[in-house]
What we know:
The protein is an alpha/beta fold.
Amino acid sequence: MDFDVERTGHDYCSVPEAAAVDMVLHENSELKSQVEDLRKQLAQSKIIHRFGLQRFAGSDDDIRFYTRFATYNHLMAFWKLIEPATHRMIRSNSKVFKEPGNTRALPAVDELFMFLVYLSLGLKQKDLGHRFQVHQTTVSRIITTWVNFLYFVLGSVCIWMPKEQVRAHLPEEFHKFRDTQVILDCTEIRCQTPSSLLLQSEVFSNYKSHCTFKALIGMAPHGAITFVSALYAGSISDRELFKQSGIIDLLTPDMAIMVDKGFLIDRLVPCKIHRPVFLTKGKQMSVDEVTHTQSVARLRVHVERLIRRVKEHKLFDTVIPMSISGSINQLFTVACLLVNYQCGPLVKAWSH
Length: 352
């Protein structure tokens, strides 16, 4: 039997209208745009909430607080200087960073940031681990790696200046002492009292009435650090430290050094010494001696201000635990060398 079929159903082969297609494409485009915006917001949120350099990039006050660098731009300029050498950096476990499969827990610039925060604030490694969201052993490895890296990278740059360069940058305040090559002073940082009585006697400083490490720092007249000795046991005298530091080999007869009256080094150096006049018992200073002493004191205060900049790294405000005594020499040296990059001139007029 034949039946006539009335074709009144939907035609699935028909092509949708062009307007409907355009609407679907437009909706897809809007959804993609929204997804991309959400991804950007998520990435920005991670940066804001993650304790890293980019979180503080917009605040020079925060950069100074966490790193001691004057501004974010100063820090980035320093990073550009050392970044090429980081590809040859060796971790504290002797594995080269670039080895296959050996990845960083943090970007290299954030590892530097962590190290600077450690120096600047003296935070415990456990605290840094919580802030940067890494394990404490990773913090320890990063700090050891970066202090050794910066010790060799910055230490490879000769900071001792030829006398011609020192004269070329001589501030007008030194017009009476134009032959001054370097201003010297000793400084001490407190350390934990060793359990060994022998070691206690070696590191105990009568001046500080505490166990200390002691170093000699030299400053060019215009304010740059040009000499840093190794750290010695706190019981060493200024004279003996000067003798062992190695600076004598850098001095020539046409130079002069400026020191405090406690440096009894006249027979050790081949050059002239600018020093406050000793006041012997029963003797009164002449007018010239008073003027000379006051002039030297006014200029010597700048090396004390420079040392204070070094000790603005709060790590040295605390008693140094014996657990880091093996790396304290590198830590202190790096802190001293960083001052030449972190800060502006000691006196504003010297910047011209």
